[in-house]
């Protein structure tokens, strides 16, 4: 069996990959052209429906998108209408938190309020699943939290 020059083999492989990619792109374009346009949602802050959090009465929450109890992507907001403390707890899945307004003081497991790091407007925090943490919110602070549901919070064994 003859051995093909490396240059020819690589060129031929590149050509085959290009044809496969072009075919996949054509198929995707045809699928997109035949599929109905997907609507997208725009949610304005003024359109949110705020309710008092059933567990932490000094907090209001508003669901921006998704069902917090379902296995789907969600976005919700928390707003502190008074100083609020979220005691040491964990979540079953990773949560992503953005401070939209005000200041959030956040401390990982093993730290106390004096060790809490202040996070102001624009601060972004990733809280890994199962990681113990606690937080304090100043009045007027608004957080946007998102992840994949269902949303679960568990009291941490070390909390008082």
Describe the structure.
With about 160 residues, the chain is an alpha+beta fold. It folds into two domains: about 40 residues; about 110 residues, Sandwich (Jelly Rolls), CATH 2.60.120. Helix content is about 20%, strand content about 35%. The strands form two sheets. A six-stranded antiparallel beta sheet has the order 1-2-3-10-5-8, with no helix packed on it. The longest helix is centred in the N-terminal third of the chain and has 29 residues. It is globular and about 60 Å long. The N terminus is likely disordered.
Question: What are the salient characteristics of this protein?
Answer:
alpha+beta, 2 domains, 1 helix, 160 residues, 6-stranded antiparallel sheet, 5-stranded antiparallel sheet, disordered N terminus, single chain, Jelly Rolls, globular
What is the tally of beta strands?
11
Oligomer: single chain
CATH topology group of the largest domain: Jelly Rolls
Q: Report the sheet-strand fraction.
A: 35-45%
Category by helix and strand content? alpha+beta
> Mind telling me the C-alpha Rg?
24 Å
Q: What is the string of helix and strand elements?
A: HEEEEEEEEEEE
Name given to the CATH homologous superfamily of the largest domain: Jelly Rolls
Q: What best-fitting shape do the alpha-carbon axes yield?
A: globular
Given as residue ranges, the uncertain stretches (5+ residues, pLDDT < 50) are: 3-25
Helix count equals 1
Q: What is the name of the CATH architecture of the largest domain? A: Sandwich
| Average pLDDT reading | 82
Strand order of the largest sheet: 1-2-3-10-5-8
In whole angstroms, the N-to-C terminal distance is 76 Å
The tally of domains stands at 2
Helix content: 10-25%
Largest sheet data: 6 strands, antiparallel
The first-level CATH class name of the largest domain: Mainly Beta
């Amino acid at each position: 069996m003859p051995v093909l020059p490396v240059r020819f083999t690589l060129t031929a492989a590149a050509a085959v990959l290009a044809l496969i990619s072009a075919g996949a792109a054509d198929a995707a374009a045809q699928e997109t052209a035949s599929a109905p346009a997907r609507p997208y949602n725009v949610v304005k802050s003024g359109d949110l429906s705020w309710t008092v959090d059933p567990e932490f009465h000094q907090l209001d929450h508003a669901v921006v998108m998704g069902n917090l109890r379902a296995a789907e992507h969600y976005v919700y907001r928390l707003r502190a209408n008074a100083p609020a403390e979220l005691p040491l707890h964990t979540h079953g899945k990773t949560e992503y938190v953005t401070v939209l307004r005000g200041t959030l003081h956040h401390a990982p497991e093993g730290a106390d309020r004096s060790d809490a790091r202040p996070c102001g407007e624009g601060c972004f925090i990733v809280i890994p699943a199962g990681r113990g943490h606690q937080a304090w919110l100043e009045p007027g602070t608004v957080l946007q939290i998102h992840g994949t549901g269902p949303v679960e919070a568990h009291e941490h064994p070390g909390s008082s």
